[in-house]
């Protein structure tokens, strides 16, 4: 009971401190005082402590099953395992918002104490804008989504948590994503402040770069975790469904990927000022738009929090206000590209422009696909769906050209390039890739024509990078762009793995009863028996399927049908046998009034390659932050 | 000047987006098939629960001033909830209630009706689920109100409530 | 042979080279788009599966009837299979479903006037941006 009160009042006081900080910042700047008062540091730290305290109170309430709090009552149960009691804290709208706030204040404080060698007024302005955002989220939490609302009389037991959400990947997925989203608020505030202080320059780029890369790494991992969870938990065998909420995480990722390429140009060549700022603003705006779509109830999705539109209204007003603010500041303080640098068509600058061009295309396609149904329904009244077939149609053809630019772009030099060398490289690489592709087509046999283009270009990219790495080892270069090499390698591998997986996956859907068996290509599955089992919060029927590859015994697949107690839900748990080169995937549902079960068996090659390559992408980003990587080959 | 124009364009786009999202909040994100309303009932024919009654088809609809087709099943919880309302509707003179028993066992259906009452003039059988799709249904329970000309006047997805009852009654009085 | 090609390229000068590259690039694009479209229904074995993937399960949260095992999905798969085996083609199946359930049941939005913005804006933006960027870079070349 007491934790609820402490938690609530901590938030309230944190809000007061936020206003105080904002007030000090404004006063400081009015006095043209270029020194940052100690107060700002103290209050920021207190602000952080209070929010963290509030969050801990909520976590403790969940752990102790304190059902006097509505959010604990609605989302938890004494039978839940401890890990999921804790994770349950952010498995609901109110709690996840509090987690968001924790990340927000920690990042803001870190920015305050770690940023050095920058103009103080710029730093103050950034903190000012940050606190506007903090005030917005704190108000949203306190006034519309208070996790500490009490319930009297205290219920004996909670309503439990949706069993689909009881999964390790899903437990870390939100915190990871939030670091990505929240991080974008830092460089958003920084962008506005930099404009107002005429600080948009290579020095600004250098100082803000880590604050772009770190959130990007977490956003990449967060998206990966979401896909992994969908694959292991949702039972469809897929990992990306173009669901609006998935798109909501992908959009800021695309924008911030474009941004981190653009900021490199700003740092190295002191050009692309306006565009970099625009990207910084767009990334954060997209994060906020994503938040709006997920929490307002405007969209129909597996992932949306169940919500009332009044919360949506708050976020909408907040989002529009921030957008309006950035629009006004941009047009008042627009960075002028005074010392515009020259560069040729065949230069790194151009290749980064091309990268951004494609990124924006992907971004616009996905953005429009996601929000168009809303627009159409408001304007016209008709309800349409925009799903995978649309996105695949629009995006896939552009992947191959994108990969080609990705292969040759980084080989170009700043300002201009040596032609002769490049053409020779192109020819060698093309021949090598072409030969490999012939081998692959021969070995695999049945490949779709669209896939051939994608396989060719992803192999091209991979070969190019592998050769680069080999050259580095042979020449013994001490300094090289490890980050770029690894991230691009990851991306090439990702596209290759997805293309191979799409072409080589096999599926069989059939009805079967105990004692029977079936075959898929060279694999045999024997439905040996059914076993019942009981766990803490569910009962289950487990099917034992013995998997054989010719004569080799691969093991057992054990799909389950689970009946959870609180809330009463029936789910099918997929059984996945994961290997380096392939996964076996099976789900089972029972057929009403029958001994038969409906089985869906899938052979899915290279799934682990997909996850691994996404990790590589993130790893490359991490490596890019360290100083020694700055030196070019 | 050019700067100002670009600013204004962006400003108005932002306002436009804000308004659309605002209005979007008020929409219901769930699916409701209002499209079916106003359409003509498709031709169908099916066997009945009590064989002696023969078939249930469009002829039955054409012979009545107003008809209701209600998809139900003995295993469906919400159907039990709305059953009293269907019973009340069956007492209206101009209204004939036809049921479609969906993926059910005959004896369970019959015992359901014996226990809770039978409002249906005729009950068609949909053992496979195909008929329901043909009629534009997708779940249980669902109800449509049709007039003599086979035009679909109202459609309800999910169990009928008091409001739905009132709306149906006022519609058949027109 | 390699050497003469290189010499040829260098002789033509970078201006024309850029035009050629841009042109080839566009050809490649259009080719990819066309290929993507045409090969969508390539293998007949997966034709049914592709149709299923395009149809929304109305009682699920965003799943297609290919992925879902709900009553409705299973029903619909059987009905569609029957219709295809009876000789109906993909477009007719979609028409049938749209009449009963509205546009919402299809995951690929129809290419008609009300959806024009959806289908064309990304491409239009890409092309317009392309021209804008091309002239921007052209202007900034070293003289």
Q: How does this structure look, described?
A:
Chain A contains 17 helices and ten strands. With 633 residues, chain A is of the alpha+beta class. Chain A has four domains: 166 residues, no CATH class; 243 residues, no CATH class; 102 residues, no CATH class; 101 residues, no CATH class. The N and C termini of chain A lie far apart (61 Å). Chain B starts with a helix and ends with a helix. Helices cover 41% and strands 22% of the residues of chain B. Chain B is elongated. Chain B has a five-stranded mixed beta sheet with strand order 5-4-3-6-7. Chain C is mainly alpha-helical. Chain C starts with a helix and ends with a helix. Chains A and C meet through helix 12, helix 13, helix 14 and helix 15 of A and helix 1 and helix 5 of C.
Outline the fold blueprint.
The complex is a heterotrimer of chains A (633), B (174) and C (143).
Chain A lengths: L1 H29 L7 H26 L6 H6 L6 H6 L5 H22 L5 H25 L23 H29 L5 H32 L10 H26 L3 H23 L13 H25 L14 H33 L7 H21 L10 H26 L4 H27 L6 H23 L1 E7 L4 E4 L2 E12 L3 E12 L2 E6 L2 E5 L4 E5 L1 E4 L3 E9 L6 E9 L1 H18 L9
Antiparallel strand pairs in A: 1-10, 2-3, 3-4, 4-5, 4-6, 6-7, 8-9, 9-10
Chain B lengths: L1 H25 L18 E3 L7 E3 H5 L3 E7 L4 H14 L4 E8 L3 H11 L5 E5 L3 H6 L6 E6 L4 E6 L4 H11 L2
Parallel strand pairs in B: 3-4, 4-5
Antiparallel strand pairs in B: 1-2, 3-6, 6-7
Chain C lengths: L1 H37 L8 H7 L17 H15 L4 H12 L14 H24 L4
Q: Give the biggest beta sheet of chain B.
A: 5 strands, mixed
| Helix amount of chain C | 55-70%
CATH architecture of chain B: 3-Layer(aba) Sandwich
Identify the overall geometry of chain B: elongated
**How many helices of chain B in DSSP terms?**
6
Going by helix content, strand content and strand pairing, the class of chain B is: alpha/beta
CATH class of the domain at 46-108 in chain C reads Mainly Alpha
- CA gyration radius of chain B, whole angstroms: 22 Å
> What string gives the helices and strands of chain B in order?
HEEHEHEHEHEEH
Largest sheet descriptor of chain C: none
Instruction: Please give the number of β-strands of chain C.
Output: 0
The largest interface is: A-C, 60 and 57 residues
Oligomer: heterotrimer
């Amino acid at each position: 009971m007491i934790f609820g009160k402490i938690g609530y009042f901590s938030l309230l006081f944190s809000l007061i401190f936020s206003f105080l900080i904002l007030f000090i910042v404004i006063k400081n700047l009015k006095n043209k005082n270029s020194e940052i008062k100690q107060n700002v540091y103290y209050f920021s730290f207190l602000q952080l402590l209070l929010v963290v305290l509030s969050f801990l109170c909520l976590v403790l309430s969940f752990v102790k099953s304190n059902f006097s709090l509505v959010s604990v009552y609605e989302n938890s149960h004494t039978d839940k395992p401890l890990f999921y009691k804790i994770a349950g804290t952010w498995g609901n709208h109110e709690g996840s918002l509090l987690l968001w706030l924790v990340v927000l204040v920690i990042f803001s404080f870190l920015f305050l104490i770690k940023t050095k060698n920058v103009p103080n007024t710029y730093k103050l302005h950034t903190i000012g804008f940050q606190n506007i955002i903090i005030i917005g989220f704190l108000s949203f939490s306190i006034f519309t989504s208070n996790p500490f609302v009490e319930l009297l009389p205290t219920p004996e037991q909670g309503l439990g948590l949706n069993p689909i959400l009881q999964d390790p990947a899903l437990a870390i997925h939100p915190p990871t994503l939030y670091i990505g989203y929240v991080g974008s608020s830092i460089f958003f505030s920084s962008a506005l402040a930099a404009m107002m202080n005429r600080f948009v320059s290579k020095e600004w780029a250098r100082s803000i770069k880590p604050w772009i890369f770190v959130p990007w790494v977490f956003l990449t991992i967060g998206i990966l975790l979401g896909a992994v969870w969908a694959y292991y938990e949702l039972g469809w065998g897929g990992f990306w469904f173009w669901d609006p909420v998935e798109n909501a995480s992908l959009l800021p990722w695309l924008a911030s990927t474009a941004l981190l390429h653009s900021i490199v140009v700003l740092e190295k060549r002191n050009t692309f000022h306006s565009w970099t700022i625009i990207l910084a603003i767009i990334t954060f705006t997209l994060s906020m738009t994503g938040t709006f779509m997920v929490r307002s109830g405007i969209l129909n999705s597996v992932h949306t929090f169940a919500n009332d539109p009044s919360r949506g209204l708050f976020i909408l007003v907040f989002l529009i206000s921030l957008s309006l603010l950035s629009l006004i500041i941009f047009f008042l303080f627009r960075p002028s590209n005074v010392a515009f640098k020259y560069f040729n068509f065949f230069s790194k600058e151009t290749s980064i422009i091309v990268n951004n061009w494609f990124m924006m295309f992907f971004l616009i396609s996905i953005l429009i696909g996601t929000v168009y149904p809303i627009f159409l329904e408001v304007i016209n009244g008709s309800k349409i769906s925009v799903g995978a077939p649309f996105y695949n149609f629009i995006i896939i053809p552009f992947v191959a050209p994108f990969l080609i630019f990705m292969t040759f772009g980084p080989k170009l030099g700043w300002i201009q390039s040596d032609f002769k060398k490049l053409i020779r490289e192109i020819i060698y690489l093309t021949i090598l890739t072409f030969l490999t592709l012939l081998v692959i087509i021969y070995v695999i046999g049945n490949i779709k024509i669209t896939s051939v283009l994608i396989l060719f270009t992803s192999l091209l990219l991979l070969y190019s990078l592998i050769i680069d790495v080999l050259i580095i080892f042979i020449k013994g270069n001490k300094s090289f762009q490890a980050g770029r090499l690894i991230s691009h390698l990851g991306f090439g591998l990702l596209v290759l793995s997805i293309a191979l997986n799409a072409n080589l996956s096999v599926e069989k859907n059939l009805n079967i009863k105990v004692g029977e068996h079936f075959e898929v290509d060279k694999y045999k599955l024997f439905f040996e028996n059914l076993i019942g089992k009981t766990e803490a919060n569910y009962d289950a029927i487990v099917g034992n399927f013995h998997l054989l590859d010719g004569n080799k015994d691969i093991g057992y697949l054990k799909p389950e049908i689970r009946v959870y107690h609180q809330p009463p839900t029936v789910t099918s748990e997929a059984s996945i046998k994961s290997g380096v080169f392939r996964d076996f995937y099976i789900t089972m549902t029972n057929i009403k009034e029958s001994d038969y079960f409906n089985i869906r068996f899938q052979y899915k090659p290279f799934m682990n390659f997909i996850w691994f390559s996404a990790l590589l992408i993130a790893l490359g980003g991490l490596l890019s932050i360290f100083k020694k990587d700055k030196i070019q080959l | 000047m050019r700067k100002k124009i670009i600013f204004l364009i962006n400003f108005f786009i932002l306002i436009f987006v804000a308004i659309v999202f605002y209005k979007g909040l008020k929409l219901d994100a769930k699916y409701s098939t209002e499209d079916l309303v106003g359409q003509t009932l498709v031709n169908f024919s099916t066997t009945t629960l009590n064989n002696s009654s023969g078939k249930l088809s469009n002829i039955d609809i054409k012979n009545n001033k107003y008809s209701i087709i209600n998809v139900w099943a003995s295993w469906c919880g919400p159907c039990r909830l709305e059953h009293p309302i269907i019973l009340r509707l069956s007492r209206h003179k101009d209204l004939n209630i036809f049921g479609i028993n969906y993926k059910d066992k005959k004896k369970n259906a019959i015992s359901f009706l014996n226990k809770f009452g039978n409002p249906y003039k005729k009950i068609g059988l949909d053992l496979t689920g195909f008929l329901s799709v043909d009629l534009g249904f997708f779940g249980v329970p669902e109800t449509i109100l049709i007039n003599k000309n086979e035009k679909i006047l109202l459609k309800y997805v999910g169990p009928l409530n008091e409001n739905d009852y009132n709306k149906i009654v006022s519609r058949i009085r027109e | 042979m390699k050497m003469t090609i290189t010499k040829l390229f260098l002789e033509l000068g970078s201006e024309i080279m850029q035009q050629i590259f841009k042109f080839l690039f566009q050809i490649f694009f259009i080719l990819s788009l066309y290929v993507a479209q045409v090969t969508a229904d390539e293998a007949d074995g997966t034709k049914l599966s592709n149709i299923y993937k395009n149809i929304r399960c109305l009682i699920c949260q965003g799943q297609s009837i290919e992925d879902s095992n709900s009553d409705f999905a299973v029903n619909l798969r059987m009905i569609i299979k029957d219709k295809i085996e009876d000789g109906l083609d993909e477009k007719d199946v979609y028409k049938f479903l749209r009449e009963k359930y509205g546009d919402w049941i299809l995951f690929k939005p129809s290419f008609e006037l009300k959806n024009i913005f959806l289908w064309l804006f990304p491409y239009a933006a890409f092309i317009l941006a392309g021209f804008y960027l091309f002239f921007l870079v052209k202007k900034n070349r070293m003289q």
